[in-house]
Amino acid sequence: AWKNSIRFGANLKVKSKDKKRDFYEYTPIDKKAFDALVRANLTDMTRDNFLAGNYQAGFFPDKKVFGDIAFTDESVYTKERILKEDATAFDADETVWGAYLRYDQRINDKVDFIAGLRMEHTASAYNANKYEVKGKGKEKKESIVPIAGKSDSYFNFLPSLIAKWDVTNDLKMK
After folding, report:
1. Is the model more confident about 72 or about 156?
2. In 10 A of CB 131, how many CB atoms?
3. Taking the complete model, does pTM exceed 0.85, yes or no?
4. Closest among 134, 25, 35, 151 to 78, alpha carbons compared
């Protein structure tokens, strides 16, 4: 019943994420007409048999009507860029590679020892922005300032040691 084995392997993960979009706020030119449109197209979102009990969700603008609004129509809506939201843009790249070595040793039919070591290397690079406001009132100037890219690289070593004992077919201890 004395057995042993060695296992090894490796993996690689490469990830890239980015968020780059322009954020705008739209305001109706005729606010009274827009408010009338909203009031005329409200839908009761209360549902029967809602799990929370007798809960009144209330009235909300009808998604069928408001989902088709053309906010880009400059004769109906004004458009303002919101730099504070645009400043949340970023891009990130991450590469993680790992390798492991595992040694299994069976002492007898009921006792096993497992020793292992996993090594991971992570390399990352990030670019982001910072939102700045200078001045006040009419002198207020908003801007987005790129932050110098940051990068990092590190290793992790993750050892493991496990003893397994099969006390009975239904009871196993680690």
Report:
1. 156
2. 14
3. no
4. 25
